[in-house]
Design goal:
Shape: globular
CATH superfamily: Histone deacetylase domain
Number of strands: 9
Distance between the termini: 15 Å
CATH class: Alpha Beta
EC number: 3.5.1.98
Order of helices and strands: EHEHEHHHEHEHEEHEHEHHHH
Oligomer: single chain
Main location: nucleus
CATH architecture: 3-Layer(aba) Sandwich
Helix content: 25-40%
Protein name: Histone deacetylase
CATH topology: Arginase, Chain A
GO molecular function: histone deacetylase activity, hydrolytic mechanism; metal ion binding
Bound molecules: zinc ion
InterPro entries: HDAC_I/II, HDACs, His_deacetylse_dom, His_deacetylse_dom_sf, Ureohydrolase_dom_sf
Radius of gyration: 21 Å
């Protein structure tokens, strides 16, 4: 049974298709048993929400394109096979509205995206809005695809704003390269910017952290002139040979000291081969310094999984555990937390990372059996049967760590020096708060809440019993 809906968000329950279907009932029992065996239950004292729209997975960038929305199918299959959805409030998201998309993107770009006809990618330059080339092809349903992943991030941010959620997850989001009027690096609309704009309605300061292997340039650029958002990006940096070629250590925001955004950009440029130990230690050091100086009231963490060893595009040596340790550290800061996906071009490892990170969000990582459940859909696609393959299993050939301790120490020192210029908890001018373009928002939220309170008891029972709820795996 699909939960009550309105036009803004739809609540849904666990993944079962047909009432009375013997296979589905068997599957539902297996999942329930798996959840019990792994100690999966609703977290005590906080709420985790999961925002997704299965329609997103059906889109194709083209056969040889590295971005495979199918990775979301794999991730969702593994997350639900463990029964982690029992521990979260799950929502099928709606598409972002044209007004919401226009809060960041220009109207002519949105109009072009909406009417662009699918065509074979052509490699010559000078495409309008950078659309139609090899990186950002125009495919069937492109506008819907973008509106859906953006809608999911906006919904997630709003759940944090109205305190219905403490950790909100949208693995289909995290498209950090998209610009105001330009597609870039497989990203067409910047759901992160749109989500942060939502958070800024209620939060004086938002810390954006990016652990994708690529520089989070689109988000950095969007908020470069405000002191209400600090952006921190950890990425492989090579100006000439690695996309997008931006994000050096000395890129710290506008040079004009009178610009409020000065010193509110933090870049952590890294070389090939960084491993779990070095990365997590650096991450904790840098983020703790940023939190101490900036004092954010909410955090957005982009969990791009192309920073894992064995990624088709990324040259780092991170394991699922090290990537997840960054999520655990952010969670430990006990601030409203939005987790979004991002890059990730070896689907089986993307699914592993985001499943492990979901388990961290709901607090069952310590009791989770690393052996993938036998009933996991497409289990053979994972190759190794564990959630945590070793570096040898992830990499086809070993890759040297080219980040020296000396260079890491220089990076930390430089960032700490720069952070000294960040005013401790800057004051918020009311005129800086983005206008609420849809005045109905609060009313709609009230309606959702009332609806939900009415149904909470039924919903709780259904979740516990795990029967008779529609959703396709
Ligand atoms: Zn990336």
């Amino acid at each position: 049974m699909v939960m009550p809906t309105n036009t803004i968000v739809q609540n849904y329950g666990p993944p079962f298709a047909v009432h009375g279907d013997v296979d589905n009932l068997k599957f539902s029992r297996q999942i329930k048993e798996e959840a019990i065996r792994n100690g999966i239950k609703k977290p005590k004292g906080y709420t985790v929400s999961w925002h997704l729209n299965p329609e997103i997975e059906r889109h194709h960038f083209g056969r040889s394109h590295p971005m495979k929305p199918w990775r979301l199918t794999l991730a969702k299959g593994l997350i639900t096979s463990y029964g982690m959805h029992y521990a979260m409030d799950s929502y099928v998201s709606r598409k972002a509205t044209p007004e919401e998309l226009a809060e960041f993107h220009t109207q002519d770009y949105l109009d072009y995206l909406k009417t662009a006809m699918p065509c074979e990618p052509v490699s010559y330059p000078s495409h309008p809005h950078n659309l139609g080339g090899d990186d950002c092809p125009i495919f069937e349903g492109l506008f819907d695809y973008c509106s859906m992943y953006a809608g999911a991030s906006i919904d997630a941010a709003r759940k944090l704003c109205n305190h219905q959620s403490d950790i909100a997850i949208n693995w289909s989001g995290g498209l950090h390269h998209a610009k105001k009027s330009e597609a870039s690096g497989f990203c067409y609309m910047n759901d992160i910017v749109l989500a942060i704009l939502q958070l800024l309605r209620h939060h004086p300061r938002v810390l954006y952290i990016d652990i994708d292997v690529h520089h989070g340039d689109g988000v950095e650029e969007a908020f470069s002139s405000t002191d209400r958002v600090m952006t921190v990006s950890f990425h492989k940096y090579d100006k000439d040979n690695f996309f997008p070629g931006t994000g050096p250590l000395n890129s710290t925001g506008p040079e004009d000291e009178h610009n409020p955004g000065a010193h509110h950009t933090v870049n952590v440029p890294l070389n090939d081969g960084i491993d779990d130990e070095q990365y997590t230690s650096l991450f904790k050091t840098v983020i703790q310094s940023c939190v101490d100086r900036f004092q954010p009231s909410a955090i957005v963490l982009q969990c791009g999984a192309d920073s894992l060893a064995g990624d088709r595009l990324g040259p780092f040596n991170l394991q699922v555990q090290g990537h997840g340790a960054c999520v655990a550290f952010c969670k430990s800061l006990r601030l409203p937390l939005l987790l979004v996906g991002g890059g990730g071009y070896t689907p089986r490892n993307v699914a592993r990372a985001w499943t492990n990170e979901t388990s961290i969000a709901i607090g069952c990582d310590a009791t989770l059996n690393p052996i993938l459940p036998n009933h996991t859909p497409y289990r053979n696609h994972f190759r190794q049967t564990t959630l945590f393959p070793t570096p040898d299993e992830l990499l086809t050939e070993s890759r040297l760590n080219r980040n020296t301790p000396k260079r890491i120490a220089e990076i930390v020192a430089s960032i700490n020096e720069e952070l000294r210029f960040v005013n401790h908890a800057p004051s918020v001018q009311m005129q800086d708060i983005p206008p609420d373009l849809t005045g109905l928002r609060d009313e709609v939220e009230d309606e959702i809440r009332e609806n939900r309170e009415d149904k909470d008891e039924d919903y709780r029972k259904e979740k516990e019993e795990a029967v008779g709820v529609d959703m396709e795996l």
